[in-house]
Write a structure and sequence with these properties.
Blueprint: E1 3-7, E2 12-19, H1 22-37, E3 38-42, E4 47-55, H2 58-74, E5 78-91, E6 94-105, E7 110-113, E8 119-121, E9 128-129, E10 134-141
Antiparallel strand pairs: 1-2, 2-10, 3-7, 4-6, 5-6, 8-10, 9-10
Length: 142
């Protein structure tokens, strides 16, 4: 039940995302980040990376997660191509995310760069529980 749509936004890239679960919401946010960053012409998954993040809010957790993907891409020259596993738990008023990402070093992928995302913003971000799942907006500063 994942879905996203592009929202017109001056000088930035914005999406509205809906999903049946928090995990699907975060996975879809990763998908829109990937589609915004690069067009993948061909690839093979060569490595896995595990991510563990904690936060006191879901919004901060989402920004941290997508920022980590962006950091791996821009700094470590590694691209996350899919989420093999992603789980979000809440314990003692803290949200914890554990993820296993499948990806590749950039030299192993045929990529056409699109936009360089400078930052994932909190602007207009509010993760809402709906009758059928969750909804949020995510804006990338380019």
């Amino acid at each position: 039940m994942k879905h996203y749509r592009t929202i017109d936004h001056t000088a930035d890239i914005a999406f509205e995302i809906t999903a049946g679960s928090l995990e699907e919401l975060f996975e879809t946010a990763a998908e829109v980040w990937l589609k915004s960053t690069a067009e993948i012409k061909s690839f093979s998954i060569t490595t896995k990376k595990e991510i563990a993040l904690e936060s006191f809010s879901l919004e901060n957790l989402l920004v941290s997660f997508i920022s980590e993907l962006n950091y791996l891409f821009l700094t470590k020259k590694w691209i996350a191509l899919e989420c093999e596993y992603l789980k979000i738990n809440k314990h003692d008023n803290k949200y914890m995310l554990r993820a296993v990402l499948n990806g590749s070093d950039l030299q192993s992928v045929k990529v056409i760069p699109k936009e360089e995302i400078k930052a994932v913003t909190f602007h207009q971000m509010n993760i809402e529980k709906t009758g059928t799942g969750y909804r949020t907006k995510i804006i990338f500063d380019i």
